[in-house]
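I would like you to sit down with the record closing this message with an eye to the fold:
=====
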Amino acid sequence: MQRFDSIRPFYDAEVNEAIHSAVNHPMMKALMEFTFPDVDEEVWKNQLKKTHSIRDFQCNFIYQSVNKVLEKSSEGLTTSGFEKLEPNTSYLFISNHRDIILDTSLLNVALFDHGLVMTASAIGDNLVKKSFLKTLSKLNRNFLVQRGLPPRELLESSKLLSQYIGQLLLRENRSVWIAQREGRTKDGNDATHTGVLKMLSMGSDEKNIITYFKKIKIVPVSISYEYDPTDALKMPQLLAEANDEVYIKEKNEDFMTLLSGIIGQKKRIHIHVCDVIDKELDIVEAEFDSSNKQVQAVAKLIDDAILKSYKLWPTNYIAYDLLHKTDKFKTYYTENEKSLFERRLEMKIDENNSQMVESFLAMYANPVVNKSKYEDAI
């Protein structure tokens, strides 16, 4: 088990010591005062110091923090599909990815509310360079995905990550959350990268990857925000990519995006968990011989599930109509909702930069295009 030490969260035996090391950090104080504004500092500090397990930390503190975020920066979280999941059962949740912290945090709130196994969640090591953030992530059952490695080291890192995910799912009965691609979707086009599925299969002792995919119980997850709190922050990278330029992040960009995602206005949020991909895998196995083609087919199954069940909001339809200069979807929103969205666009984007305006609108409009490919979707 020591081979996972470089990427794993804390063991319960390490939790109390980690909390004692972080309890006086200014960011812990800010987090606790945000979460428990009417509680004296000594009270929450004493409660923290009595915490000896990740579950207690998540249930007593992080769960409360996420609910406070929802209260302050959204009009509520709705969910669907969770009633189909079995209690005391581990699943591999493969999700579209819009927000660094909230996607997985909101999923865990929903799992907790439904009495289901919460996840260990993948997080890029680029996001936890600050020592406090690394400690907090390990207290919240995050495991590290190492970024920016040369090819040989990347292969070894992927094998280790895959073995750890297999260990969690099949031996520790711990659910796992992982994004369908590296990094967040910035253009509204949710697509599963086959590299993620290839990485998962590396940890298998099975000769047949389909057998392994059945064992780990893949559940696609579709999460949508009415307003993306980091929409404007995604624009520079989208523009660079559109112009075939190399995008270089600012020094604290990831941290600022993380904060903006938490405190920025989201309006309504919906999470749908799809059915476990199971019988469909038998069809994939029967139709395709090569593992490469099987992986591509499984990626398509995940994409289809996520896109079909994606919750479209008035903002998506408004953006589509503005982008295409049409009123095709005008029955899906009110004039007031349209005015509010246009106001947001004016405040966040330079209207003289037509490329930026187009990218902003496309980010919201693309889910409409993608979902309309399924006959019964709209």
Notes: The beta strands are 74-80, 92-95, 119-124, 142-145, 175-179, 218-225, 267-273. The chain has two domains: 2-9+76-311, 315-371.
